[in-house]
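Thread: "does anyone have the structure for this chain?"

Original post by V.I.:
We have the sequence but no experimental structure in hand. Need at least a predicted one for the grant figures.
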Amino acid sequence: MTTSRPQVRVHLAPAGLLRFGTAVLAVGVGAAGHLQTAFGIALAVGVSLLMREFATPGVDLATTLVLAAQALGSAAGLPARVAVWDTTFHVLVAALIAIALGAMLPPLRLPGMLLLTGLGMAVGLEWEALEYLVDLVAGTSYAPSAADTALDLAGDALGIVVGLAFLRAADRAGHPMPAPRFLEDGF
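Reply from O.Q.:
Generated one for you, tokens below.
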């Protein structure tokens, strides 16, 4: 009599593989002694994990791709060498988060857009404060200037506007965003 073992199939979606690779990168960067960069990459993984739950699969994948690219660039030191690196990612991530949050709401009108903008900018302010605190705790010499912080927040604001414009255009074209996973699962 032969008995067969049950086969276990593991399916990792592309976003999951990117998240895993980014987490491994954070560990490697931290082991190399670049603790502030490793912490930033770990935060990117955390944001990506949140997006997995609160975004549609397409927005989740797009966010994970953007965050993985940002993490790789940070590990390679690109923010110090490419002037628009950090601001570009502020725009992209803010747009994707606005799209993810906006997809959970009924079609947005002006009051909803203002609320989402205010929430998005509050998150941006918290992020900037966290960057400053990490710098203080890590004792690194990088201290974001007021101009750098203002540029990051301007990128966040632009990203929110882009995300809201995308949601509005999709709604007007008759293509509303699908509900996020947790709403489909009956959260």
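V.I.: this helps a lot. Residues 48 and 64 are 6 Å apart (CA to CA).
O.Q.: and Residues 110-138 form the longest helix (29 residues).
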